[in-house]
UniProtKB/TrEMBL annotation:
It comes from the Eukaryota. Pfam families: Ank_2 (PF12796). InterPro entries: Ankyrin_rpt, Ankyrin_rpt-contain_sf. This is Uncharacterized protein.
Amino acid sequence: MANASTSAADESSSILPHKSLYEAVEAGDLNTVKVLLERNPNDVRAKINMIGENALHVAVLAEKEKIVEELMKLMSKEDLEMKTNTGYTAFDLAALNGKIDMAKLMLEKNKDFYHKKW
């Protein structure tokens, strides 16, 4: 039982530094997102909430297309394959939620999604 609470505490402390990024993405504040990622470019790959989403996952679910476009510029093909704790990529979330334009952007960068098996 102590391991579960220790694990949750570890995860919570690992996302705390990313609270500002999470809030900026969720709010659609593109300028703040750009500033935060200029300061810490690797944060584009960081899990920024308790369910293991990165900034791209959050932007897709929050329907922030301009932020999705900006994040796509900073992410590699492999970065797009990052999954949430429940196993979803940002492409999965876009496709499942009918965000066709966002899904197309991701397909342009990572053609492997064409062969995705659901």
